[in-house]
């Protein structure tokens, strides 16, 4: 994550409703500096992993050398230790044994601590105190921060036991209780600091992971929203443009037939117009396919049609040559705008399907009924005119139009209102029927949304 990630994560989190305290945590300047410093140290440690370990060893050596060279032998809690009775080389060996394991403290924290603890116990058994014993605290801190928590418990118990043995049994001191309190306090502080930094590191890692998750969630939500919007726009374009093109093609075919019967010169031009319309419909299907997979978030802001617009729709269909009868039952004006739009689109698609597959020589019956919380739309046509083979107009009907957006769209719209759909040949054997029943519990003009 970059240095600007906390602010970006906060912005991302606003759209995904994160926990209330997360934004404030990201915005806090102290946390930002901590994360920036942590990243800098991590990068340096990844490039030169030996640098920090070497620095710790050098610091401890610098603390130890004055005690080895000029130490007076006074014990830290009163009295004198036994260093005067031991050769200088032995003291140096003990100091080296306490300091050198720190080189591996992060790679093997448990082993490092237990080795240093064993060396410390050995030096105390000889009655000496070395300032290199600070290595035990560093190793204990490292175990608390990077090692196993189960082993940390054993290490804490071992540290307490060794401290008690040192002040009460192994090394003569004048103030054993003060010595025990000091040793236990420093060991506890080392463990506490290690655990605190470990928890802080886990917390920062959790915040970074949370920020990444929020970014991914935000991107996914944006893509899903865009996909849903593209699908809706594509469906609306198919319903509107596809229907109008079908009417135009039907009118052009009818005019071409009439011009041919009258031996007029415009017949060829009208046939070209009809063929061009069919080609435009084919291109429209391709464009809608791209639109469903592309990136377009345009909303349709024009008023959506309703029940009252069915008369204009039927007038255009009749002008194309299809005989349509229309009947309504119930108070359709009280239906919500969303239900009215659904009814309109279902009728539009069913009549477009009739024009496409049965042609202008057939007839259709449209019935819309609203009763007892149910809206029923029934569109039935008479099928192909006598004498025309199946598929003479636009191919045989199979329950789905060629584009896959028409009758499938009817089922999708009906599913929004838990409706049932029946699409197929009529029982009489002639014609096609689209029968949709919508479950509309409250027939009111409010409380619904446009699909």
From TrEMBL:
| Catalytic reaction equation(s) | ATP + protein L-histidine = ADP + protein N-phospho-L-histidine
> Where is each DUF7134 domain found?
46-200
Q: Which UniProt keywords apply?
A: ATP-binding, Kinase, Membrane, Nucleotide-binding, Phosphoprotein, Transferase, Transmembrane, Transmembrane helix, Two-component regulatory system
Enzyme Commission no: 2.7.13.3
Question: Could you tell me which residue ranges the Histidine kinase/HSP90-like ATPase domain spans?
Answer: 339-439
Q: Name one Pfam family in it.
A: HATPase_c
Chain ranges passing through the membrane: 50-70, 86-104, 110-139, 151-171, 177-197
Provide one Gene Ontology cellular component.
membrane
Has keyword Nucleotide-binding?
A: yes
Any GO MF annotation of the entry: ATP binding
Q: What range(s) does the Signal transduction histidine kinase subgroup 3 dimerisation and phosphoacceptor domain occupy? A: 229-295
> Which intervals of the chain are annotated as region Disordered?
1-22
UniProt xrefs under InterPro entries: DUF7134, HATPase_C_sf, HATPase_dom, Sensor_HK_TwoCompSys, Sig_transdc_His_kin_sub3_dim/P
Q: What is this protein called?
A: histidine kinase
Q: Can you name the source organism?
A: Streptomyces bingchenggensis (strain BCW-1)
